[in-house]
Recover the amino acids of this structure.
DNA sequence: CCACCGATTGCT
DNA sequence: GCAATCGGTGGT
């Protein structure tokens, strides 16, 4: 849970063949396990959510609505499910490469949503399970968001556990998926 | 094997 | 407000 808040302000990067892609994390959501009906891990381990039950600091990527790939950072120790969905980032590097994926909107909106992050970064299931401390995907320190810059609210797009205050966003950022 | 439905997005 | 699009999941 604390990871979701702590990731705000940090830098997600991806070293691709074409160049470096990077963005400042400004919106996240926490998902846990058996105590969280909205989590993919709620009903226990399955082929899809295996990574959520593994060690912290790995990428849990899932295919959504038949067309989007969404990225999470695992948050707990082996055996305990937990992940943080990255929902919004402010583009920092590789904006031209992100646009090459087909989104030609304003730069500040290229990564304003979990599906958009997957699209701009070219994420697929090949990225599922990647270690953020090793390999092309990583997270660097950045400048952590101050407590008074963080808004806590309900998660978006779920139908169960709708009142859990597990969404964290940097106040005022134009790269947050929605107000 | 089959039917349901979603941690979304973009257009009407 | 709603269609697009399809694999994961759970029940028959």
């Amino acid at each position: 849970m604390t990871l979701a808040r702590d990731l705000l302000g940090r830098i997600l990067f991806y070293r691709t063949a074409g160049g470096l892609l990077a963005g400042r994390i400004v919106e996240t959501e926490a998902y846990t396990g058996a105590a969280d009906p909205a989590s993919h891990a709620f009903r226990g381990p399955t082929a899809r959510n295996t990574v959520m039950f593994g060690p912290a600091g790995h990428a849990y990527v899932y295919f959504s609505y038949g067309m989007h790939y969404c990225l999470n950072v695992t948050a707990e120790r082996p055996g305990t499910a937990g992940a943080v969905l990255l929902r919004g980032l402010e583009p920092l590097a590789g904006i031209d490469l992100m646009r090459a994926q087909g989104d030609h909107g304003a730069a500040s909106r290229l990564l304003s949503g979990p599906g958009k992050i997957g699209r701009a970064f070219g994420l697929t299931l090949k990225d599922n399970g990647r270690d953020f401390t090793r390999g092309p995907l990583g997270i660097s320190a950045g400048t952590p968001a101050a407590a008074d810059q963080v808004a806590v609210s309900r998660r978006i797009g779920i139908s169960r556990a709708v009142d859990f205050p597990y969404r964290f966003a940097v106040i005022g950022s134009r790269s947050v998926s929605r107000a």
In short: Residues 2-170 of chain A form a domain with the 3-methyladenine DNA Glycosylase; Chain A fold (CATH 3.10.300.10). The helical segments of chain A are 2-6, 95-99, 114-121.
